Amino acid sequence: MRVLTRITATLACAALATTLATPALAAPADAPPVEWVVSSHDSLGDAITTATATQDAAAVAAALEAMSTRAANGHKVDFPGLDTAPLAVVESITDAAADALKSGSDLPTDVTSFDLAPDSGAVVMQPATGLRPGGGKVDGDLAQLNGYVSNNGYSFVQDNWIRRGLTSTGGTVNWTDKLTMKSYTTPSFTSSRHSLTMTYFPTTGFFSSPSVDIDAYTGISSYVGSTGKVSIPLTGTSAKVAYYSSVKGGTVFHSLVLFAVQRTGGEAYDGQQTYKAKCPSDATTCSYL
């Protein structure tokens, strides 16, 4: 199964998997901090579903209630997406999520549709002067878009990130680990080059063995090539996707999925998609402008 399909299927399942088992009414007084593992393609509903899969739902509800109270008291909540939203929205959405967990009901649509990185979101990046910024939807977009056009229109720049945090006092979250991959994608008629820069700060070593899978598509979603899943050193690397057939006269876009092994087991991942680059027959290469 190709990566774009995997991203789409995973996001669809996450949107459906919001019916949670009825938890205890209150978290134990000695409950450990709630652990959050989130990525830039997640919604708040995804983050909550991930947290309750391995932790007590009542503890997660209590953490959300503390966030709601913090926002109600006029303080920013340090959680991706929530940190840039109006405080009234943060208060309402976290309170609604907590109520759903306590009652064992479905998470509200406002929660499941709240993106942690809306458009360029909490990790907003400014485009070069005169170039088109990322964000929004394009034809055939089946994944979230973050980033901007650069290199006179010949490259697309974006961040994939995965974070791990622990709830702290007063509705705050201590983000102990932030793993980010900045990619520069430059397509041509027959292949694409990808320059990958890694940043891992702060870190406790919760994430390890980062890797990436880059797929290329033409038209709406016709697969034309892949790197396969390859390791990325923290010093960064470069990669190339050789297309099975030329995209001259058409369009091409890429999905980039960052993976990392978690100390607690399993892999966290984050999937992003570039804009479509146009590859006209009368040009010498592809361009995002």
From TrEMBL:
Which keywords does the record carry?
Answer: Signal
Signal peptide residue numbers: 1-26
**Record's superkingdom?**
Bacteria
Q: What is this protein called?
A: Uncharacterized protein
- Originating organism: Cellulomonas fimi
